[in-house]
Structures are given as C-alpha cells and as structure tokens.
Design goal:
With about 190 residues, the protein is α+β, with helices and mostly antiparallel strands. It has helices at about 40-50, 80-95, 125-135, 155-165, and strands at about 25-35, 55-65, 70-80, 95-100, 110-120, 140-145, 145-155, 170-175, 180-185. A hairpin with a 3-residue loop joins β6 (about 140-145) and β7.
Length: about 190
C-alpha cells in the first residue's frame, strides 16, 4: 500500500478533526455588564451561569445611574476562550442587558476589591498585626482589647497576601466585596 500523497498546500488534518481553534487554555476574564435596574435581572444573569455550568469567581453589582435606572454588574469568570465568547454572547441576548464589555481584552483596566478582616490576638501578635497593616496601607476600623477589624482595598492578590500574613497572627474572619473594575482612559462603557 502506498503512503498517502498530499497535494501541495493541503493539510494532513482530517476533515473530522473537531479540535477548537482556540485550544484548551483556561483564562480569567473580567466582564462589565450594564443592565436595566429592575427586579429579577441579577437572577437572570446568575441563572445563565448556573444553568450552563459557567464559573463565577467574583460578582459585584450596584446601581450606577439613579435617573437612568441602570446597574453595573462586574463578573470575574474563567474558561477557555470559546467558553468566554459563549458567555459574552449569551449575556448580550438577555433583554435587560444593555452592554457587555470584556475588560480583559479591551485594553488596560483598574481592578480593586474591598475586604474587612478580623484579627484577634494579644501582645506581640497585636503589634505585628498593626505593623503589617501599616505596610499594606490597611486601616483599623474597629478595635477592642483583644481584636482588630482591618479595612483594606487593592487587587485581589494584595488582599490574599495580607490575609496570608494575618492568618498566623489570629485571623478570625474575612468579608470581601468582589472585584470592581473600570477601563483606563477617556472612553466610557455605559
């Protein structure tokens, strides 16, 4: 049997090779979704993610325009490029969604998160907790003789690093808001 001879410029790939052109690399993307501020909108957005098994790593939502009745949902999600594209397309089909912007691919953006951390301890642990809070520019928003509540804003990585350092000093509880993000530059996504 003679080996298969391919014409010049032809590919050796089968027509039935169904691999995606995007590959299987999982990426994290930050989506800014402007929606109509009315009951049930958030449930529809969340239902899209839960119904299709998409992951939400962070979610923040608040009204941004009282007169225009619009809210901004910032979603940090992960998936292959094909999955991310599906998420954006399906979000755009929800009637009450005005715009969907992928801040990860549309250029540089600023992302911040707020966290409150309760740290309980005595003696040297209290002194070390205050010293580290000063380094991370965290504020003491509550204090008792045996505990502090620190407020810190920054990137999720900065908050993770602060929490990791506070853990051996008596970290008791953490509350995080999730990522809020805006694109850099003069263009607005409203």
């Amino acid at each position: 049997m003679s080996p298969l001879k391919l014409k010049k410029g032809a590919s050796s790939h089968s027509a039935y090779d169904l691999k995606t052109p995007f590959g299987d690399t999982v990426e994290q993307h930050t989506l800014a979704v402007i929606v109509e501020n009315e009951p049930g909108v958030l449930a529809r957005v969340i239902g899209l993610f839960s119904g299709r098994g998409y992951n939400i790593e962070s979610l923040t939502v608040a009204e941004i325009d009282h007169t225009g009745h619009q809210s901004r949902i910032t979603i940090v999600t992960s998936g292959t490029p094909q999955v991310i594209q599906q998420i954006k397309s399906q979000l755009g089909r929800i009637v009450t969604v005005h715009t969907v912007n992928d801040l990860t691919v549309e250029g540089p953006s600023v992302e911040r998160e707020l966290a409150l951390l309760k740290v309980a301890g005595k003696g040297d642990h209290r002194i070390e907790a205050i010293r580290l809070a000063d380094i991370f520019r965290a504020n003491v928003v509550d204090s008792t003789l045996e505990s502090f509540v620190f407020e810190i804003t920054g990137t999720p990585e900065k908050i993770d690093a602060f929490a990791d350092l506070m853990r051996p000093l008596g970290l008791q509880e953490v509350a995080r808001t999730g990522v809020a993000a805006l694109s850099r530059g003069p263009d607005a996504h409203v």
